[in-house]
Design goal:
alpha/beta, 5-stranded mixed sheet, 4-stranded parallel sheet
Length: about 325
């Protein structure tokens, strides 16, 4: 059954002469039609994800396609039940994906070979090809392609140094890279080629999102779910034999439900079931469970006695100075 709302995922490396002016016009239009989402604008182009009704998203597609240089923007579309964003933000950035290189990479000048989903699947099955996930570690932990290398990074800008430190994995080899929608791979694959860190580099055209919808692949060889930067947090990809690869933070059982630790000073994303969230008041450590500003406690209006009772059930006690 068709749903009434859509999420659009898109990007375009295209020179924007006045990002500040572009940002203002863009934000004004999005607000005028009631669209919500997060869009980054820079001199190198645009990178965004927005959500709205069918009418709103169609209006936005027409608007962006009407702008010189953006006539061919490729929108990846997901059907959803409601808005996937709380507000509408359009922000100017130096880069639409942050690698923070001293000598930036222009994807129009150097980038990896584009691989269609079926070609990428062939690469996944090729024992002589190295598959590198270019996303952050917490994205990988929710889901990834079978056999892909997990980079030990929390931010995309850390990936070049990590690859250099582990260059023996890639030198003189065939490498394919992937990311959510393709925007990170366009720049990173070019960087790998420029630095001579692989024999040749391919990239999944359209990213994981496109691979999951392709009728020839249907997300096969993907394990777990895909991390997205909106209210959904995770979306299914594998339509052939879906699995759960993530594990609950507390009991190690299969769980792909990501939540933020209730300690505002920690805020770490961890996997936990609703049952364990309540049991451990969404604190990833004993200190976080006892934090005086524990957000689970305050949002659920737990009294100090109720809070202490839950901790007693797991063998902990509330600090005397803790108040709510």
């Amino acid at each position: 059954m068709s749903k009434d709302f859509r999420v659009l995922l898109y990007y375009k490396y295209q020179t924007i002469e006045s990002p500040d002016t572009f940002q203002k016009v863009h934000l004004d239009f999005c607000k005028s039609i009631g669209l919500k989402g997060r869009i980054l604008v820079g001199s190198e182009g645009i990178n965004g994800t927005v959500s709205g009704t069918i009418e709103q998203t169609e209006q936005y597609k027409e608007f962006l396609h009407s702008l010189p240089g953006f006539e061919d923007v490729w929108f990846k579309v997901d059907e959803v039940d409601d808005y996937a964003h709380k507000k509408m933000h359009v922000r100017v950035r130096e880069e639409i994906v942050s690698l923070d290189l001293e000598d930036d990479v222009n994807p129009h000048e150097v980038t990896g070979d584009y691989l269609k989903p079926t070609q990428f699947k062939e690469a996944l099955l090729d024992e002589d090809t190295i598959v590198l996930d270019t996303r952050n570690d917490y994205e990988y932990d929710l889901g990834h392609f079978k056999g892909a290398i997990r980079p030990d990074i929390r931010n995309f800008r850390d990936l070049p140094n990590w690859v250099k430190e582990n260059k023996e994995k890639f030198m003189d080899k065939k490498v394919v890279v992937y990311c959510t929608g393709g925007v990170r791979c366009e720049k990173f694959s070019g960087w790998m080629l420029r630095e001579g860190l692989a024999e040749n580099v391919g990239q999944l055209e359209g990213g994981i999102d496109t691979y999951g919808k392709d009728p020839e692949t249907l997300g096969d060889l993907w394990e777990g779910s895909m991390y997205v930067f909106d209210e959904r947090i995770s979306v299914p990809i594998n339509q052939v034999n879906p699995t759960v690869v993530a594990r609950d933070h507390f009991d190690g059982e299969p769980c792909d439900r990501y939540v933020n630790c209730a300690n505002p000073d920690c805020n770490k994303q961890v996997f936990m079931t609703e049952e364990n969230e309540a049991k451990y008041v969404r604190g990833c450590t004993a200190e976080c469970r006892k934090h005086p500003r524990n957000r689970f406690v305050s949002s659920n209006y737990l009294s100090k006695e109720e809070w202490e009772a839950r901790l007693n059930n797991i063998g902990e006690t509330l600090y005397e100075e803790t108040t709510i």
